[in-house]
Amino acid sequence: MNALILAGGRSTRMGTDKSLLTYHHQPQWRYLYELLTPYCSTVFISCRADQKDNFDSFPCLIDNREIGPLGGILSAFEHSPTEAWLVVACDMPFVSPETIAFLVSHRQPNQIATAFQHPETLFPEPLLTIWEPQSYQSIQAQFEQNRFSPLQILKKANVHLIPCPTPRWLQNINTPEDFKNTTGQ
Ligand SMILES: Nc1nc2c(ncn2[C@@H]2O[C@H](COP(=O)(O)OP(=O)(O)OP(=O)(O)O)[C@@H](O)[C@H]2O)c(=O)[nH]1
């Protein structure tokens, strides 16, 4: 299994690149890199070409097209179609070692993905999910129809949904106000 840290967003609501924000005494992408390394053969940062210098010499996977997070996931499968991809967005600062251990321990490789169930919407959270190789076909099919929602793929598919024991794990931070409320900075 490989890991993919989604960091290629435009962060328009935040006004500054969300992947570079500090929550654990280091940029969030660097924190996630450490956290994912024990579980994965390679951890990649998923980003645009113009962001690459932000990530020193760490392995990056550049989006082949800019269509949002699905573009990052699709580029990952284009790079390694037979690998599973543990995908984590860089704007979820409450993801912890326990979160990843929990997700990995519930993995069902015979389904297209293993995902947390959002406690309010009851939908899968697509950006903290293990995407199995068999999901690649569904992703390609959706892309070919000009539909770019990872959630829609998971809603239609045979996904292993796991209840989230700590709803905060799924909280994402999108605005300066969210950031201030979370960190006090
Ligand atoms: N690789 C990649 N990651 C993306 C892309 N768009 C969003 N992401 C990541 O997906 C996660 C959720 O992003 P969003 O909050 O939906 O989008 P955003 O562009 O970062 O933020 P807004 O511009 O405020 O909507 C974040 O970790 C983003 O870095 C993309 O086009 N490519």
Automatic annotation (TrEMBL):
InterPro entries: MobA-like_NTP_Trfase (IPR025877), Molybde_CF_guanTrfase (IPR013482), Nucleotide-diphossugar_trans (IPR029044)
Record carries keyword Zinc: no
Gene3D superfamilies given in the database record: Spore Coat Polysaccharide Biosynthesis Protein SpsA, Chain A
EC number: 2.7.7.77
Keywords: Cytoplasm, GTP-binding, Magnesium, Metal-binding, Molybdenum cofactor biosynthesis, Nucleotide-binding, Nucleotidyltransferase, Transferase
UniProt main location, coarse: cytoplasm
Cofactor requirement: Mg(2+)
Domain of life of the source: Bacteria
Catalytic activity from the UniProt record: Mo-molybdopterin + GTP + H(+) = Mo-molybdopterin guanine dinucleotide + diphosphate
Family as reported in the entry's similarity comment: Belongs to the MobA family.
Name of the protein described by the UniProt record: Probable molybdenum cofactor guanylyltransferase
